[in-house]
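To close the chapter, one final illustration. This time we ask the reader to focus less on the individual chains and more on the assembly as a whole: which components sit near each other, and how the overall shape emerges from the parts.
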Amino acid sequence: MSGLLYLIPVALLLGLVGLAAFLWALKSGQFDDLDGAAHRILFDEDEDQQEERRPK
Amino acid sequence: MVSALSAAADRACAHCGQPVPPASPGGAEFCCAGCAGAHAIISDLGLDQYYARRSLDPDLRALKPDEDGPARDFGAHVAVGRDGLAALHLMVDGLHCAACVWLIEAVLSRVPGVRWARVNMSTRRLVVKWRPGEADANALVDRVTALGYRLLPFDPAQLDQAALREEKALLRSLAVAGFAAGNIMLLSISVWAGYAQDMGAATRDLLHWISALIAIPAVGYAGRPFFASAWTAVSARRMNMDVPISLAVLLALGMSLFETANGGVHVYFDSAVTLLFFLLIGRYLDRRARRRARGAAEHLLALQASAVTVIGADGVRGLRPPAGVRPGECVLVAAGERVGVDGRVSDGVSEVETGLIDGESVPRRVAPGDPVFAGMVNLGAPIRVAVTAAGEDTLLAEIVRLMEAAERGRAEYVALADRVARLYAPAVHGLALATFLAWIALMGVSWQQALLYAIAVLIVTCPCALAIAVPAVQVIASGRLFARGVLLKSATALERLAGIDTVVFDKTGTLTKGRAELADAAEIDAEDLAHAASMAATSSHPLARALVRAAPLVPVAQGVREVPGCGLAQTTAAGEVRLGRRAWCGIDALDEGVGPELWLSRPDRAPVRFAFEDALRPDAQQVVRRLRQAGYQIRLLSGDRAPVVAAAADALGIDDFRSDCRPEDKMRFLEDLVSAGRRVLMVGDGLNDAPALAAATVSVSPASAADVSQIAADAVFQGDRLAPLCELLATARRAERIVRQNLALAFGYNALTIPLAVAGLVTPLLAAVAMSASSLLVVVNAVRAGRAGER
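The assembled structure is written out below.
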């Protein structure tokens, strides 16, 4: 039973990592355009200005 | 009608996919010069793959560049952001598929200086950012409009930011509740398994404490939407579904904490958090569907709005949004343009189409001194309008006053779920109290034990299934309608639609298309029609466009002059050919019709008359018949003159009609119907319908309606057909039936579990199983609302 003492915290930590990842994705706008994101992957290609086009 | 021409028109335009007319100005491959230009731009940039990748949507506007689109200064809408880049937010009309998104982004990002171009496909919005001074807003916009898309500026700050924030907060709460529910459920299953396998008390307590540690912050965070709403309701002395929900969750949490601290056997952490998780799913879906419909409705309105040409004191023309025009200024309205302001004609003689304002289907002649109102369409020559839209005596102000009066008169509709909650919450709380007292008085148990039983009653009766039962059906039904071009703007529209027994239609623009169509195409010689249409193709006058619609594939005539206020003239070897007003074409025959007309006069040939009428929507007859068969009473209420209304009513088989109605007449008629106990659906599009729309039980507008009417309406349908109306009513009835079934299921579940809870037999395991099972059952039943329905 002593295994529980570290198994439970490890399980919770992994769950929290997943939760944090989701909240981060939400905050960074990755859920704003679900339709576009699904199709965009089919068209984006290795354009040379690609790097320049990204903001910042 | 155009069979002689259609054989040559098998080829589709290489850009927009429309048929290519013979002798097209765009050459053999294109239907017009604009399409040829668009194709050249795309080829020059090496983006030819676009044509292979795209899939055109036949229901959307063809990707044909506007040759005479309204000019507009986009420079005024540019904002310089914190990153030092100039940014322009635009709405895009004409997105057919993902390849269009790719094309727009690729074209813009190849312009020097542009740093960022991104189209959001879900919201159809485009953001362009560039280094200030290196690119010009209007040039960027022109690049995209040359491809056939239409762009409109919008102010991102004016969008529904509050709703978006609420939606994101709900999603975050949902994520937290989901995380907590999953983990607590894992621990709970160990505990339940421990009942059978003699888990030690120390281990059980440890698992309880860990569950408590997860549940307390999770409930504190994810429960806020419910707690806030319940608190608002309670402090206003009202009752809503969130009150029993909040109470059950908080009591379950408190009791479980107490039990954990005292080493108790049964805790309800999993029930409390799972309950929140399920409820948040329902609420998130509901908010998202509503915001999506509202966003689409706003998009439609913005597409209609157009700039106004203001002539300054120095004679310089400038484009401004209608809201920026001040009384006393002078506005130029070109032929075929919509009047953007209220005012009086100061110069020019023309005809205006007033259908959207008063339901009149025949254009009215205006001369200097006559009033014109925003929403009218100038059919003839350009006119100058002195703006009077100030103060309280404008038409719009009066309509808005009437609308507000009508809305005040209408009793506030209480959603079904709230009506149920008003009965349900006191009953449940009374039952819990009775359980508590009965256990102490009759069974003589300690008050702590009795309290545990009473709280168990609250937990199992918590309206989890009840709170999901209604939103799940509404989300699925409104999603189905959304896909068919019907946007539900009001949350309770479906419920109100389901109870309708009378349908009142407006005529012009609702039962009819609201625009002139060639009336007697079959009687006109195809050659005459082709000749007239080839001349008409050079003009943007609405009657000329109607001619072109009747014979779309004719080549555009060369050497045609437009004579303002009269018509079109073409010089041929035999003499002058004229297409236009009766008098100008030299006809002095007796008046033989009431509708608008055009005459074609050619040397040595008998003149030909083209009569136009505001044709019924293609499926109006069918829809009215279907509605009558479904048991609705149909009435027609129009501002148009009696003979025209009677003819339309006769064609549709409507016995009960009224003509010459002013806006207040319409409103009073609706109010009388409603106060006589009828539940009335009003379908209308005009400014004059807006007060009646607000007075009806529930109201629907076509997407072509005046903006005030669209705002007043509970639902908006798109397209040229009325069939979405039948779909809307059928879906509403079906949704109502499923909601009632769902409520019955939820009550059935309670009827089973309440006796167990009162008897003190409920365990956390039983509560979890019953709650999840009933919620699932209700959701699965709701999915049926989205299936193709029987009528």
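Chain B has 26 helices and 27 strands. Chain B touches chain A at residues 53, 83, 85, 97-99, 101-102, 106, 109-110, 115-117, 119-123, 129, 168, 171-172, 175-176, 179, 182-183, 186-187, 200, 203, 206, 210, 214 (CB under 8 Å). With these observations in hand, you are ready for the problems at the end of the chapter.
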